[in-house]
Design goal:
This protein has 499 residues and is of the alpha/beta class. The protein has 18 helices and 17 strands. Helix content is 35%, strand content 14%.
Length: 499
C-alpha cells in the first residue's frame, strides 16, 4: 500500500483546496456599525442585511483570500490551482467575490444559495458537504484541504508542510496553536471568541497525534482553560477515505453539540467523531493565529501585517548594505559562512523576483520562504505588541468589551466620541481675520499676488528707451544683446603665421 494513496495509485489521488468564505460576519458588521468608523467594510447591497465579507477585507493592503492563494501556490500538490480550487460564497456576497475574481477564478466560485434572511443557517461542514456532493469530489478519490476564512495565520505559515505530511501519513489532520497569554493583546482579543481545546501526544517531537478534542468553550468559561493548552485552528485536512463520513455527518442534524453553535464548530464535531470511531487524526502546530471575527481583531491583524512588511524591508536593506561593503565583498568567499552565503543568495533571488513583479505583490508575501529562514516571527510579534500597545494607549483606543445575553458573549462596547474645540479656537476674539500687510514695492491684485511692478532696470536694453520709458523706435545706436553665432578668430594666432 503506497503512502498517500490508501491502496490506489499515488498519481490518481489529488488534493482540492476549499476556501470557505460563506460567513456573514455578523459580529464584525455590528462592531463596524456601532463604532462609526470602517463603514467601507460593510458591503451590503439593496435588499441584503448588513454583512462583512471577511475573506475580502485587506490586511496590509492585500485581501485575505489573496494571501491564502499566494500561500497555496507554493504547494505542488495543489497545482494547477485553477483546477483544484473551490471558493464557497453565500448569496449575499457572491457578487463581491465575482467583482474580485478574474476570469480564471470566476469559474471556481460556488454559492450555497443562503442569505441572511434564511432561518436555517448553514455551517462550514454543511457548505463543504454540499460542494463535495455537487462537484462529485466524493467519487474520484480526492483529499480535501479546507480553510475557514474567518482566521489568518502569520506570514511565515507553511501550508505545503501540512499538506505533504498529511498526504504521506494517509490520515486526517487539523491545525493547532498555543493559547495566547491572557495578559497579552492577542489574548485579550480572543477572549470574545469560542475556544476548542485539543489534547495531543506530549511525547511527540512534531505533528503529534490527537487524543481528544473538547467541546467549544464559551467566553464566560475561558478562564478555566490552562495556559499551556492547544487550541484548534481553521485549516483542516480531510483524507479521501473520510470524505463520505463528512457528507454523512453534515446530513445528520439530530445530535448537535454546543460546538456547532458557531460556523466552524461543525468541523469540531466531525473530527471528534472520527477520533471516537478509532481513526487517527494528527495535529500541525502553527504560530500566531489572527482571528477576524471582530473589528478590534481586524485592526490588530492589519497593523501586524504592515509592521511585518516593514521588518522584512528593513532586513533586506541591512543585508544589502552588509554585502555591498567593499572590504567584505572582496573576502566574501573566505570570510562568510555557508549560512551567510545562502542568505545572500536568497535575498538576491527574491529581490529580483520582487523587481519583476514591479512591487505589486507585498514584500511579506513574495518572501515567505525568506522570512521563515531569516526572520524570527516570535520576536517580531513581541515587538509589535509593544508597539501596538503604545499606539493604542496614545490614541485612547483600548479594547472595551461588555457582556450581552444569557450566554455571556463578549461584544465591542461602542465608545463615546468627544467633540471639543481646540485650545487655539477657544478665545473668540482671535477669530477676526487680520490680513498681513504686503511690502510697499510689491503690487497685490486679485490676479497677480506679490508681483513686482516693471521698471526699466528689469527690462532688457533691446526693449528699453533712453528715457526709461517704452517706445516704438530706437533713437540711438542700435545695440543687440542677443546671442552671437559668428565664428571668432584669434588675432594673436593669426599674427604668428607671419613667422
Amino acid at each position: 500500500m503506497g503512502k498517500g494513496s490508501s491502496g490506489r495509485d499515488g498519481t490518481s489521488a489529488k488534493v482540492a483546496l476549499i476556501l470557505v468564505g460563506s460567513s456573514f460576519g455578523n459580529v464584525f458588521a455590528d462592531d463596524v456599525y456601532n463604532h462609526g468608523d470602517y463603514k467601507f467594510l460593510i458591503t451590503s447591497n439593496d435588499g441584503e442585511k448588513r454583512h462583512v465579507t471577511t475573506m475580502l477585507i485587506q490586511l496590509g493592503g492585500v485581501p485575505v483570500i489573496d494571501y491564502w492563494l499566494l500561500t497555496a501556490q507554493q504547494s505542488k500538490r495543489l497545482q494547477a490551482l485553477e483546477d483544484n480550487l473551490y471558493i464557497v460564497a453565500n448569496k449575499d456576497n457572491i457578487d463581491e467575490f465575482e467583482a474580485w475574481a478574474n476570469d480564471k477564478y470566476k469559474k471556481r466560485l460556488w454559492c450555497n444559495e443562503a442569505t441572511k434572511f434564511d432561518r436555517e443557517y448553514l455551517n462550514t461542514l454543511q457548505d463543504v458537504a454540499a460542494l463535495v456532493t455537487e462537484k462529485g469530489l466524493d467519487k474520484d478519490f480526492t483529499h480535501l484541504c479546507i480553510i475557514d476564512g474567518n482566521c489568518c495565520f502569520s506570514p511565515d505559515f507553511n501550508l505545503t508542510r501540512i499538506i505533504e505530511h498529511s498526504f504521506i501519513r494517509d490520515t486526517d489532520a487539523i491545525t493547532t496553536f498555543k493559547m495566547p497569554k491572557p495578559t497579552s493583546i492577542a489574548g485579550k482579543l480572543t477572549n470574545n471568541t469560542d475556544k476548542v481545546v485539543v489534547h495531543v501526544d506530549p511525547n511527540a517531537n512534531s505533528n503529534p497525534e490527537v487524543f481528544a478534542i473538547d467541546e467549544a468553550v464559551s467566553p464566560s468559561q475561558a478562564d478555566n482553560i490552562p495556559e499551556d493548552s492547544y487550541l484548534m485552528g481553521n485549516v483542516y485536512y480531510v483524507h479521501a477515505n473520510s470524505v463520505s463520513a463528512l457528507v454523512a455527518a453534515a446530513n445528520n442534524r439530530e445530535n448537535v453539540s454546543i460546538s456547532a453553535r458557531f460556523a466552524a464548530g461543525s468541523m469540531v464535531d466531525f473530527f471528534r467523531q472520527r477520533i471516537a470511531d478509532g481513526h487517527k487524526v494528527y495535529a500541525h502546530e502553527c504560530k500566531h493565529v489572527l482571528c477576524l471575527n471582530t473589528l478590534n481583531q481586524f485592526k490588530f491583524a492589519d497593523s501586524f501585517f504592515k509592521f511585518y512588511a516593514s521588518q522584512v524591508r528593513k532586513a533586506m536593506e541591512d543585508q544589502k548594505q552588509k554585502h555591498n561593503d567593499t572590504n567584505m565583498a572582496e573576502n566574501f568567499k573566505t570570510e562568510f559562512s555557508a549560512t551567510e552565503r545562502k542568505k545572500k543568495e536568497m535575498y538576491d533571488k527574491y529581490e529580483k523576483k520582487l523587481t519583476q513583479t514591479n512591487h505589486i505583490i507585498p514584500v511579506y508575501v513574495v518572501k515567505q520562504e525568506l522570512a521563515r529562514s531569516t526572520l524570527d516571527t516570535d520576536q517580531i510579534m513581541t515587538e509589535f505588541e509593544e508597539h501596538y500597545a503604545a499606539i493604542s494607549s496614545s490614541r485612547n483606543s483600548e479594547v472595551t468589551l461588555r457582556k450581552s445575553g444569557a450566554g455571556g458573549a463578549m461584544q465591542v462596547q461602542p465608545q463615546e466620541k468627544k467633540y471639543t474645540l481646540p485650545q487655539r479656537f477657544c478665545d473668540t476674539s482671535t477669530w477676526q481675520h487680520k490680513p498681513v500687510k504686503q511690502h510697499a514695492v510689491f503690487t497685490t491684485t486679485n490676479s497677480n499676488y506679490g508681483l513686482k511692478a516693471p521698471t526699466p532696470q528689469t527690462m532688457p536694453s533691446l526693449f528699453a528707451g533712453i528715457n526709461g520709458s517704452f517706445t516704438n523706435k530706437f533713437p540711438g545706436l542700435y545695440k543687440s544683446s542677443g546671442f552671437t553665432t559668428a565664428k571668432t578668430t584669434s588675432k594673436v594666432h593669426k599674427s604668428l603665421d607671419d613667422f
